[in-house]
Amino acid sequence: MKAFSATWACISRGDLEGIVPPELGEAFNFFPPKLSLPQNHVSLAESLWFREGANYNMITRRFVFDAKSIASLQAKSANGKPEAKTSRIVTLSCLIWKCCMSATKAVSSGSLKPSVLAEAMNLRPRTKPPMSDGSIGNNFGHAIAVVHPTD
Q1: Which family does this protein fall into (predicted)?
Q2: How many Å apart are CA 80 and CA 84, to the nearest integer?
Q3: Residue-level pLDDT at 66
């Protein structure tokens, strides 16, 4: 999707030099296809997203953070230790997760509930050697973190 969107954006801007040609066979060398998904992944997805008769009342919001605000959050999270500086995405993910946990606590009579954060990671730059940005396929994994109220 990233390669498709980037190519579309370049064409829309008239920037034909910036187009990255798709690399159709590269991902296969790193991630050969599996015949099927593990059953626990399928059942979890079904229970979370495809519940029959579920009443979904969802609200979406867009939050925009400027560079100065992110740098300030990073400095707070480092707590005076420059070697502990987190990435921009980790810093914002933690802030949003913390706010979600606070909101859950507020609507559940002040009790903190267990919480799970799952984020998709682009595996292209993490392979040895790194894959090109034009590599096409499901080149992502999940980073999962869990917080339990008693920990």
Answers
A1: Belongs to the plant acyltransferase family.
A2: 8
A3: 93
Instruction: Dig out the tokens for 24 from the structure.
Output: 């159709």
pLDDT at residue 69, as a whole number:
94
Amino acid 16: pLDDT: 86
Which of 38-42, 62-66, 103-107 shows the lowest mean pLDDT across its residues? 38-42
Q: Report pTM.
A: 0.58
**Residue tagged 């914002």 (tokens):** 92
Segment (H or E) for 97: helix 88-107
Count of Cβ atoms closer than 10 Å to residue 42 Cβ = 11
Q: Could you tell me the CA-to-CA distances from 102 to 77, 111, 116, 144 in Å, in that order?
A: 18, 10, 14, 19
Structure tokens at 54: 């579920």
Per DSSP, the residues of 21-50 read PPBSSHHHHHSPPPSS--HHHHHHHHHHH-
Q: What is the DSSP letter of 128?
A: S
Which of 50-54, 64-68, 100-104, 122-126 has the highest mean predicted lDDT (pLDDT)?
Answer: 64-68
Tokens of 11: 């064409």
